[in-house]
Sequence to fold (195 residues):
Amino acid sequence: MKLLLIIALLLSAFQIGDLNAEELSFYEKETDNWWTVFGGANAETGRATCYGRANKKDGSFIQIHRSLVDGEVWAIVHDTEWEIQGPDRGSLRWNFFNGLKNGLIAGANFDYVLKDKNTILILQIEPKNFSQALWNARYFTLVMPGNVPNMSLSFESKGGSMLSTLTECVKQNETKYKNFKPSLEKVPDSVKEQL
Fold:
């Protein structure tokens, strides 16, 4: 039940292109030619994260988030080539490579939640093993199920540059946003008077 609640909250929090959700941006730093680390908080949802983002020329992107509120790590992946049909959940394989021939460093299976035909959320990523693999990776590939195209993204040198900057963002902002909560609407006086 708790997992379903977390998924529902995250799905509502990550409305891509939601114009109603004003985000307070508190950090931005490029880590290489492909990756930038951002920090943002949304008073409406109570979400505050530091995240690394890489964009592809076709509009595809990945964001790897670390919550400043509860420490959870997750990813949002959008690929313009995807046309995912079917169940709202699935599994993929995330492989990390060092760029050398036969350079597989690590890989793991992850469950995802389908946001739309082009976007998935990968929730509850175990931070220690994930960061160890990402730190040494020159690139990674998301091996998608069925006939959905795989997605690969690179780092200019290694993932450690993005992770170091992500850690810097977390250290600078975690204390401030640790107890960040959604803003509650105040009851208008006209309503209070009639209650």
